[in-house]
Design brief:
The protein is 9% helix and 39% strand. Strand 3 and strand 4 form a beta hairpin. The strands form three sheets. The chain has a five-stranded mixed beta sheet, with no helix packed on it. Strands 3-4-6-9 form a four-stranded antiparallel beta sheet, with no helix packed on it. By secondary structure, the chain is mainly β.
């Protein structure tokens, strides 16, 4: 009999403790704003807890926007890095680096082209080449020299770029120029 009474007391305790105030289901968080010039975006979010007296309360949620675009190489662990950006948008002077290139790399060609790049067609005239990797493989672009819009930026590593010299690796990423 005592065992039944103890079990009943325990069961009632669980039921009574579990019947306290509960949070209602809050609204879904709003959509993120566009990134501002400080690379921050915000949205309205909702929370409910004991601290809010079990009521849904709104608050402004803030996060940092991405300030670089990266892309992995097609063959090795190389990485294309474009910065500064605000998400995928660029303006003014940007840096383009090609990191972790294959060991045999003697030069890197950098390409910027409206829309997509067909890597099979090769590169055009006046394409910048970095043939001194002692300071890294990089270039700077002044995006004010291009019309606003979607561009693909690519880097191609090679031993040489003659007819019989296939690339060692390549990486590309798309950005939107907004000057």
């Amino acid at each position: 009999m005592k065992l039944k009474l103890v079990c009943l007391i325990i069961l009632l305790s669980f039921l009574l403790l579990g019947c306290g105030p509960k949070c209602p289901e809050c609204q879904v968080s709003g959509i993120w704003s566009a990134c501002n010039d400080d690379a921050v975006k915000t949205r309205t979010a909702y929370q409910c807890s004991e601290q809010t007296n079990f009521e849904c309360q709104s608050f402004e949620e803030e996060v940092q926007c991405k300030t670089e675009v990266t892309a992995k190489g097609r063959v090795t662990d190389s990485q294309l890095r474009i910065y500064p950006t605000i998400e995928k948008n660029v303006k003014g002077i940007i840096n383009v680096e090609y990191l972790n290139v294959p060991e045999d790399t003697e030069a890197v060609i950098f390409i910027i082209q409206s829309g997509k790049i067909d890597m099979e067609q090769g590169v055009g005239q006046n394409t910048p080449i970095d043939s001194d990797g002692s300071d890294g493989w990089n270039i700077m672009y002044d995006t004010t020299e291009y019309n606003n819009g979607l561009y693909t930026i690519a880097a191609v590593a090679g031993k040489g770029f003659g007819d019989n010299q296939p690339p060692l690796d390549a990486a590309s990423a798309q950005v939107i120029i907004k000057n």
